Amino acid sequence: MRTIGDWQNICQRLLGFIPRPQDFNRSSLKVTALNVHMLEQLQLPDLATQDMINQMARCYMFWMIAGMMMVDTSGNYLKLMYLPMLEDLNVVSSYSWGSATLACLYRFLCKASQSNQNEIAGFLPLLQIWA
Q1: Which parts of the chain sit beneath pLDDT 70?
Q2: What's the predicted TM-score (pTM) here?
Q3: Which of 41, 49, 91, 101 is found 20 to 30 A from 55 (Cα to Cα)?
Q4: Which segments cross the bilayer (predicted)?
């Protein structure tokens, strides 16, 4: 189990910023923390290094994966477990993100069918198209 300090180091290395401790909830990061960082870096400088470009690319990919494709019921937090998968950008395209998104949606549909559950999560546009 990673600590907040571990996640801060991973965020600094992969995303280019260190979130505040209050931006974490266990192993999740507040959406607003990533959004603020991305807005601050909206336009990369002309002399941006390859590391800066890669970090911003990871920010967008992380937001798409954790904030849209595999979103949970909180809606306010991004699961950090997806972030280490973005470390090597050369292999990210080899992952089966579509299958993972579908599996996540199936899992949340199963959870939503339980009598004590009143919310649904997952990539709901896929469910709308499918229906």
Answers
A1: 131
A2: 0.89
A3: 101
A4: 60-78, 90-109
